[in-house]
Amino acid sequence: MVHWHAGRSKNEIAASLGLARNTVRKYVAAAEEAGIVPGGAAISSAEWAARVREWFPEVADGRLRQVTWPTIEQHRDYIVGQLKAG
């Protein structure tokens, strides 16, 4: 969002982040719908973070999303031992 707001094109952002242009377009669309335009009034990192949490709560949720990790975790000692044994 910060790069887009600073005037970088969606193509440039997609290439620099290794994303599809459509993915960048999807996220930028929320800012555009909110009336934010590239080169507009400065927006702090904290405000961007708050807006992203509001627009995309599923992305901003920092909790563990891998449901299999707890199942694998119970085997950690065995896995570590096997890795050490080669």
TrEMBL record:
Q: Which Gene3D superfamilies match?
A: Homeodomain-like
Q: What is any Pfam family matched here?
A: HTH_24
From which domain of life does this come? Bacteria
Instruction: From the Swiss-Prot or TrEMBL record, give the protein name.
Output: Transposase
Name its species: Nonomuraea thailandensis
